[in-house]
Specification:
Length: about 300
């Protein structure tokens, strides 16, 4: 009897599920002790355990499995800015939205420039900006709303996604935090904006730091470290930076973001740390470093339900 051949292109979701235990987890996490899980019901979606049980919340993070994009964009590229065919990106959004249960035509996109501007989405007119409407949301790395049925989306391929959810006020926020956004404290500015606009109490805000590049993979130079030294005190610096003999440094953006959140009043138990590194797991996640820039974009999404 001829043995059936396994086709990674058609059976990628099955392959991902079979090999999930072989993923490279960020210490101290493992397959049996992790902060995330992958929902395989439709297109694979990474979800955070910390948000489970909140019926009014939809949240997820994409992999690069389950879409229709080709070549170095294979296969679930969710960005219109990577040179992909528009029809491919739209189909990918349809699949990802179906897996999570939101209307993709109502997505609101960030316009990321590694800064700290945060846009409050406070009108139904904002729904669809970036997805099906020309957007006036420019140079914006953070999105914030208390409106239901408007999914917020930010984009990644190593930088740090941060999710914010006030379970009492029913407010959500998304922040894109690369090294520049981290040292400029976009996380703290998001908490401040939530308290100013919606009267949120930081003690009620639940956060998750999403899949992104880990300390082991993130080597930086003096240009970055000089800014880190300006931002963090001596004890914090020692926690997030490993100095090497070659004049380079390993930077822990995850821990830096947690420090920023806690300094803004978020409780430590209300912060979920990432267990997956995009660079270590570039077989299932897009990584700018691992691919030398030849890649699609992952996405983080968050939406309130009525």
């Amino acid at each position: 009897m001829e043995r059936k051949r396994f086709d990674i292109r058609t059976d990628a979701k099955l392959l991902l599920k079979r090999n999930e235990k072989l993923q490279k987890f960020i210490e101290p996490y493992s397959f049996d002790n992790r902060t995330t899980y992958i929902d395989y019901t439709n297109t694979p979606v990474i979800k955070y355990k910390i948000f489970d049980g909140y019926d009014k919340l939809i949240t997820g993070f994409s992999t690069k499995i389950g879409g229709v994009s080709k070549a170095h964009l294979y296969s679930l590229n969710l960005s219109f800015s990577r040179g992909d065919d528009e029809s491919n990106v739209i189909e990918n959004h349809k699949r990802f939205a179906k897996a999570l249960g939101y209307d993709y035509t109502r997505l609101v996109f960030s316009d990321q420039v590694h800064d700290t501007h945060i846009r409050v989405i406070d009108s139904e007119e904002d729904a669809g900006k970036g997805m099906i409407k020309v957007s006036d949301i420019k140079e914006t790395d953070g999105l914030l709303t208390n409106l239901p049925n408007i999914p917020l989306m930010t984009f990644y391929a190593d930088c740090v996604p941060i999710y914010f959810y006030d379970k009492e006020k029913q407010v959500i926020g998304m922040a894109h935090s690369g090294w520049r956004g981290t040292v400029a404290d976009i996380a703290g500015k998001m908490v401040k904006k939530m308290t100013e606009v919606y009267k949120c109490n930081p003690a009620d805000i639940i956060c998750a730091i999403g899949p992104s590049i880990c300390k082991k993979c993130y080597e930086v130079d003096d240009v970055v470290i000089d800014k880190v030294k300006e931002r963090y005190n001596e004890d914090e610096y020692k926690l997030i930076v490993e100095e090497k003999q070659n004049g380079k440094y390993q930077l822990d953006l995850h821990l830096a973001c947690r420090i920023n959140l806690m300094n803004a009043g978020i409780l430590e138990n209300n912060i979920a740390m990432p267990d997956l590194c995009t660079c270590c797991n570039n077989n299932i996640l897009y990584s700018h470093r691992a691919s030398n820039g030849k890649r699609g974009n992952l996405a983080a999404v968050m939406m309130l339900k009525e």
